[in-house]
Amino acid sequence: MNQNRPVVIRIADAVAKDLELRILEGSLKPGDRLPAERVLAVEFSVSRPTLREAIQKLVSKGLLSTRHGGGTVVTDQLEATFADPWQEMLKAHPLLQSDMLEFRHMLEGEAALLAAERATDADIARIDAAFKSLEAAYDSDDMQACIDHDVAFHQAIAEASHNAMIGHLSASLMRVVHGHVSDNLVHLHDTPKHWAQIRAQHKAIWEAVRAHDSENSKRGACEHITFVRLSMEDAAKIEGRRHTAIRRLGESI
Question: pTM for the whole thing?
Fold first, then answer.
C-alpha cells in the first residue's frame, strides 16, 4: 500500500468545509440565510448539485437548516447546546451567578486583550459601529436598546479576538446572561452616577481596543466585570431588604 498517495478531497467536502469555517469564525451567524444557490454555485465555481450536497452535509451536522420556501439558514446549535441548560441552572441555583461572573471576567478580559492585538481595520470598524449604536441607545434612554447594544458591543470585541472558541463561547454566554444584563442595567439606570460609570467603562474599553493597547483593554474589561459583579450584589441586597420590609409589613397588620 502506497502511504504517500495524495489524499483526494471531494469538491462537495471542500465547499462544506469552507461554509463550516465561515460559521465557526462568525462570518455566518445564527439566523443568517445563505445566498441563493445560483449565487453560491458561482462563488465556489461548482455545480448546483455539488453545492446541495455540501449544504446537506452541514444540515446533517445541525449547523444549517433548510426551510421549505425559506432557503437555508444557519442554526444556533453551537451556542444553544451550551446556553440552554445553563440558563435553567442559573434560575434554579442563584449562587452560580458568582461563578458565571468569574468566567465572564476571565473570558472578556482575554477577548479584549486579543482583540487589541489582532483586530483588523474591518474589526475596528465593526467595534466602532457597535459602540456608536450603544452610545445612541444610552442617549435615547431606551432600556431594551441599551441591553441589546451592550451585548452586541461585547460580542464585536469577542469576535475581533480571532479566536473561534472565544467568539462562540462569548455568544453562548451572552445568551445565558441576557436576563442578568437586563436586570443589572435597570438597577444601574436608577442611579445616575452608576449609569455614567458604566458608559465610561465601555468607552474606555473601546478606546483601548481601537488603540491596540492590549494591557489597558484587558484591564478595562476586567474592571467592567468587577463593577457589574458588585452592582449585581448591591441589587440583590436591595431586593432582599424590600422583601424583608414586605414581610414585616404583613406581620404588623
Answer: 0.74
